[in-house]
Amino acid sequence: MMSPLQAVPLFHLGPMPITGAVVTTWALMAVLTGGSWATTRRLSLEPGGVQAVLELLIEAINTQIRETMRTEPARFLPLIGTLLFYLVSANLLSLIPGLEPPTAKLETDGALALIVFGAVHWYGIRMQGLRGYLREFARPTWIMLPLNVLAEFTRTFSMMVRLFGNIMAGVFIVGIVLSLAGLFVPIPLMALDMLTGVVQAYIFSVLAMVFIGAAIGNHDTT
Amino acid sequence: MNYLQLVSILAAALTVSVGAIGPALAEGRAVAAAMDAIARQPESAATLSRTLFVGLAMIETMAIYCLVIALLVLFANPFVH
Q: From the candidates B49, B64, B80, which should be mutated to test the interface with A, based on the most A CB atoms within 10 A?
């Protein structure tokens, strides 16, 4: 049986091996970017159907950011919104026959977790200054300093493993049931996977919001 | 099939089965507490169920960690081969 931890290179771009997950991610990026460009090209004051749905979604994300981070959402909407849209579409990609969610590979989740890791420190230093941000690590007392530094890395790692484990487990179990039982048997499991995929995308974005919110100094949110 | 592979398979099965107990009990308690809260305050059901879903997924992650460890033992075991 093929190991779920292993990635097979499709082709080589110079010295760099390119796997199927990377190609899927590129296609997804193109679709999301093109779709956003096409739908926001002609915005009007009286929104049509597509624009109304998009405005509803963006407004929902804005409300979520405002409630979780207790700050104005405009600065964080690009990052959080992109994460959410990308994760939802990536996690649901196994519904299209022949495609596998890129988030079922450890490398994609590692990259996403690293983006959040970088964004936490970037926003923390931007909003509080370097000294103020570094002082956060010695809170509540300086004895907590090693633990706080360690927690920065373990929570990034746990974000990566959480997303990977949930999505990969879905793909893996559907594969096993399909090989054991036959064509239409895994459909209830795939329905469960849809729920898991959307919930995990939501959780990943909420955790990113909570971590960034803690880094910019809103202690009441965590 | 050598001794090491047998032990690996047994360890993977044990990891998943034992690792599922804790999260299962925890999820039961979380759902029971949420039901209790919704029964007392039906008007806050929306907030409660949203928080419940996030909390359940967090708890489930513990079981998923065990699954990842089991898969590591089965597929990426450094002592086999």
A: B64
Contacts of A13 (CB under 8 A, 6+ apart): none
Please give the tally of structural domains in chain A: 1
Residue A22 lies in a domain: no
SS3 content of chain B, % helix, strand, coil (to 5): 90, 0, 10
pTM, whole model, 2 decimals? 0.86
> What is the C-alpha to C-alpha distance for residues A32 and A86, in angstroms, rounded to an integer?
8
**Residue in the structure block whose two tokens are 């995308």:** A201
ipTM for the complex shown: 0.77
pLDDT in tens, A2-39: 677 777 888 888 888 888 889 999 999 999 999 999 88
The Cα A18–Cα B74 span in angstroms is 26
Q: Which domain holds residue A157?
A: 46-216
Residue A24 forms part of a structural domain: no
Query: Count of CB contacts below 8 A, A vs B?
Result: 41
Report the DSSP beta bridge partners of residue A16.
A13
User: Per the domain annotation, does A103 fall within a domain?
Assistant: yes
Write the residue in B57, B67, B68 that is nearest to A203 by C-beta: B57
- Determine whether B43 is exposed, middle or buried from the number of CB atoms within 10 Å of its CB (0-12, 13-18, 19+): exposed
Nearest to B64 among A3, A6, A162 (CB): A162
Write the pLDDT tens digit of every residue in B6-38.
899 999 999 999 999 999 999 999 999 999 999
Say if residue A104 is exposed, middle or buried (CB neighbours under 10 Å; 0-12, 13-18, 19+).
Answer: buried
Q: A17: which strand partners?
A: A12
Contact B31, B57 (CB under 8 A): no
